[in-house]
């Protein structure tokens, strides 16, 4: 006996008929055929509650019964359960109008009494096999959908890891650590949420902002790593990292890389139009660029590096307030101050290791 047949004979069956002799006959017929889970009721008003408790695989339903006829039972089942439980109508009513009405109400099959034993058993097994196969296909589809979701998540995580590592590559060239982009990206996400961005956009911002300085990989070492102030011509070369970053990310099809390119290009623009590379002003600067500007500046000022001491938080906040409406979008400065406790928590949770701190006099 195959596994499918074993499952078939384990099917839960409910007989609904007001005639005791009919119930007994059906019980014996089904049990002799090998079915092991058979219940019956002569009160059609119990059908819905019985189904809720036992989730029958097939209901063998009479039509002519007191209190509720078979049609009323099917309507009641349809109101409470979706999809309609599988019903085989078993009745003495042979008129075509009864058959048509039963099928319209959702019955899967229609057998007239007196029934021929083998025909009934074949119809029962056909319906149960059909249900078994449908459930198998549903489980297969669910399994495939789960695998697709898992694979998609793996691909997304791989993409995010590549993005983060490219961002870190740029930071390491500039004597930064990966913790700078962690703090900066988390602060950016917090500010994005405060500025009304939805969850999906905030997640994109979290994962795109680490690419803000990717263009620094195109700046010569003698300029990028210079410990002192830049000469005017060196500063002009240094400023090209914004456009280089945008060029690196240009043409990307994913929302993540498109946002990363937008941030790379615009995070050094200033609210008053004095920034670079394009001198954008006010809301000409994309919101994500305005957000990353303040997150990047605050973390850069308050972080120690081998070549500089960290600013005190109070001094960094003073600079941000003084540049409200100049360097920074006033609304984002307000959001920054409103969320200062959470921003400082991010800073404290991702501190630089001792080995990365300032080693000068």
TrEMBL record:
CDD domains: HDc, REC_RpfG-like. Keywords: Phosphoprotein. One of its GO terms (molecular function) is phosphoric diester hydrolase activity. Gene3D superfamilies: 3.40.50.2300, Hypothetical protein af1432 (1.10.3210.10). Coiled coil: none annotated. One of its GO terms (biological process) is phosphorelay signal transduction system. This is Response regulator.
